[in-house]
Structures are given as C-alpha cells and as structure tokens.
Amino acid sequence: MPLNIRGVEIYPQQLDRPAQEALVEELRAVQAVAPLFSPRTRGGQMSVRMTSAGKYGWYSDGRGYRYESTHPGGGDWPAIPASVLALWHELTGLDRAPDCCLVNYYGDTARMGLHQDRDEADFSWPVMSVSLGDDGLFRIGNETRGGKTESIWLASGDVALLTGPSRLVHHGIDRIRPGSSTLLAKGGRINLTCRVVD
Ligand SMILES: O=C(O)CCC(=O)C(=O)O
Ligand SMILES: [Fe+2]
What we know:
The protein contains two helices and 15 strands. By secondary structure, the protein is mainly β. The chain has one domain (about 5-195): Alpha-ketoglutarate-dependent dioxygenase AlkB-like (Jelly Rolls), CATH 2.60.120.590. Strand 1 (about 5) and strand 2 form a beta hairpin. The two termini are about 30 Å apart. Bound molecules: 2-oxoglutaric acid and fe (ii) ion. 2-oxoglutaric acid (AKG) binds near residues 102, 117, 129, 171 and 193. Its cofactor is Fe(2+). GO terms for molecular function: broad specificity oxidative DNA demethylase activity; ferrous iron binding; oxidative RNA demethylase activity. It holds the Pfam family 2OG-FeII_Oxy_2. Keywords: Dioxygenase, Iron, Metal-binding, Oxidoreductase. This is Alpha-ketoglutarate-dependent dioxygenase AlkB.
C-alpha cells in the first residue's frame, strides 16, 4: 500500500539498490545520446539540468514551456529505459506507455519551485516520478495556487504517482540533502518524470 499525501501516492523503496544501480546505467546511455542541458524560463536559468527520453522531451526557453520531438542539440530523444516502462505499467496498471521520460539532475544547490505539470493534452493520465541518489524535499500543495502544503523527503528508490485528483496539484523540490546517498558517483539527485503527452 502506498502512502497518500494530499492524494499523491508515494511508494517508498519501490526500487531496491540493485534495481537503482541498473537504472543509473541505463540513464548513462540516455545521457550519452542526449546530454543534460540547462533550460531557461522567463524567470531565468533553471538550477536543475535536464534531458529526456521517449517520443518527446520537455523543453523551455524564453518562449515558454513545451514538448519538443528533438534534443536542443539536434537528433531524436533516446528510447525510455525498459525498466522505467515496466515500472510505469506495474504501478499505473495502464497499457498505454508514456510519451516522455524527463530526466532531472539536481546538483547540491538545485531546486524546483512549486508548479503544476500541465503541458500535456489530457490530465486524466497519471504522472510517475522516480527518485535516485540524494534525498529531495518534495513539497505538495493544492490544485489552486497557495494554501497549505505538506513536505516529504523522497529517498533513492522512492516512486510517486500524481494520479486522479492529485494529477494537477502544485509540487516542487525545496532542496536536496547533499551526501545522503552513495548511489551516484558524483553525488546529487536524479528524478525521472514519466508523462503521457499527446
Ligand atoms: O524532482 C522531482 O521530484 C519533481 C520534478 C518535477 O516536478 C518535474 O519535473 O515536473
Ligand atoms: Fe512537476
């Protein structure tokens, strides 16, 4: 049974250490094809670096947020790792695969402000988020801006599902806890976010 925090389903330690290590290897292959980049937003440079796998990649620049079918350096996005697809089908119970697996990399001082995931066409599909590496302080708010929030430390191997009424809740990462995990040789935190886009 997952934890339920403001409708977000949290599966603590869904991936054991060997599964996390195998996934990090798969992500190394993704980054070799599609290197991390630092997106710009209207508010400035993001502190999180990112890339994507799948049919689309999430992208942002001075023109706003959107999905793109190619990497900013040119070329298709690599395929979503098989283990991530298997986890998606297992936890969501869906036959439909996600169109995008966003790969977020948080260095020691990176954060992500409160936001909704709403660049997709149909919000009835869930969003699946996988944490790897250092702990991240995940803040969960409401569908509307403002109001009460609750925070939970997400550890390496934890998976969160934004599903049903929690699909559009505001959420963000206030900070990570540098040095809290030995999974990533260079430290930091990786978060994978899988979404159906079309
Ligand atoms: O890093 C996280 O756990 C959340 C990432 C996120 O919310 C996003 O990429 O939209
Ligand atoms: Fe998000």
